[in-house]
Automatic annotation (TrEMBL):
Record EC number: 3.6.1.22
Reactions this protein catalyses: a 5'-end NAD(+)-phospho-ribonucleoside in mRNA + H2O = a 5'-end phospho-adenosine-phospho-ribonucleoside in mRNA + beta-nicotinamide D-ribonucleotide + 2 H(+)
Entry keywords, A to Z: Hydrolase, Magnesium, Manganese, Metal-binding, NAD
Ranges where the record places region Disordered: 138-158
Residue ranges annotated for the Nudix hydrolase domain, each copy included: 163-288
Organism: Mycolicibacterium chubuense (strain NBB4)
Annotated family: Belongs to the Nudix hydrolase family. NudC subfamily.
Sample GO molecular function, one term: metal ion binding
Protein name per the record: NAD(+) diphosphatase
Cofactor(s) recorded in Swiss-Prot or TrEMBL: Mg(2+); Zn(2+)
Pfam families hit by this protein: NUDIX, NUDIX-like
InterPro entries: NAD-cap_RNA_hydrolase_NudC, NADH_PPase-like_N, NudC-like_C, NUDIX_hydrolase-like_dom_sf, NUDIX_hydrolase_CS, NUDIX_hydrolase_dom
Length: 308
């Protein structure tokens, strides 16, 4: 029972719109598609307006006759229309009777359909990067967005910068049978547990990072590191790469880097019970509260818990 796979595609890894990367450098095509294009507005808190599971998209021409300088190209819908995103205040839909709500992808992304999940995740990642990349990291010169928002260039030197992605591993440690490790970070409230994660260091493979991070965080030596899947996590710019690995329940925990407040081995029955009580937002009086469905952590835990 040491091997398992994810039962479902992580919610933020769903494929929706065509990313249409060839259009990013075709300025004429971008401008030609603008009159029929749609625009996703994302506010400063990375919130969007949603209606019945879909992100509200406005006619792009509401923002002008051509793509604004800081708009980013997200892709193309099945009907051929282009979709752009812009950091701005949210605006109500054209249909005043449509039910709407303001949602944060990180907390409520499970209600988005596939297309909206991809569009909002991509927009959030790109706009967060632009917010923090307006100056060259080499000489501090102001940079200009190019390629429909997919890169920035220093007009003086021509140096081009691309969106930064910080890869991180996330791993379920189990004994190959009926027990798995869950841990609580020092900054988390009591009873909030998850699996172990950490950022990849320079010159390090994903698998080596899993071994190092788990040793640093809880003192366990793990083996048989197996890949499960990945998920963008644009808060602000991570890519979560999921694994599972074997650990020894007889080996004592050691919280070496100070990030983990407590950890324990839990049985499959205990984890199933925790899953039944909901997630971190639940008011249930459960010993464990586990991550929400938007996180790949939840999918990994649920997939392991579902094994017979």
């Amino acid at each position: 029972m040491s091997a398992f796979t994810l039962r479902n595609i992580p919610l933020l890894s769903r494929v929706g719109a065509d990313r249409a990367d060839t259009l990013r450098t075709d300025v004429d095509a971008a401008v030609a598609g603008w009159p029929e294009a749609l625009l996703l507005r994302v506010d400063r808190r990375n919130q969007v307006l949603i209606s019945e599971g879909r992100a509200v998209l406005h006619p792009a021409t509401n923002a002008g006759d051509a793509p604004p300088e800081h708009a980013v190209f997200l892709g193309r819908l099945d009907d051929g229309r282009h979709v752009w995103a812009l950091r701005s205040e949210l605006e109500p839909p054209d249909d005043p009777g449509a039910p709407t709500e303001v949602l944060d992808l990180r907390r409520t992304g499970d209600v988005f359909d596939d297309v909206s999940a991809q569009l909002v995740a991509t927009a959030t990642a790109l706009l967060n990067w632009h917010d923090n990349a307006r100056y060259s990291p080499v000489d501090g010169a102001p940079t200009t967005p190019v390629k429909s928002g997919w890169s920035r260039v220093d007009p003086r030197t021509g140096r081009e910068e691309f969106p930064r992605i910080d890869p991180a591993v996330i791993c379920l440690v189990h004994d190959g049978h009926d027990r798995a490790v869950l841990a609580r970070q020092t900054v988390w409230p009591q009873r909030l547990f998850s699996i172990l994660a950490g950022f990849v260091e320079a010159g390090e493979s994903f698998e080596a990072c899993v071994v190092r991070e788990i040793a640093e965080e809880v003192g366990l030596t793990v083996t048989d590191v197996q890949y499960l899947g990945s998920q963008p996590w644009p808060f602000p710019r991570s890519l979560m790469v999921g694994f599972h690995a074997l650990g020894d329940p007889e080996q004592p925990f050691a919280f070496n880097d100070g990030e983990i407040a407590e950890a324990a081995w839990f049985t499959r029955a205990e984890i199933r019970d925790a899953l039944a009580h909901g997630d971190w937002n639940s008011s249930a009086n459960s010993r464990l509260l586990l991550p929400g469905s938007i996180s790949i952590a939840r999918e990994i835990i649920e997939s392991w818990a579902a094994l017979d």
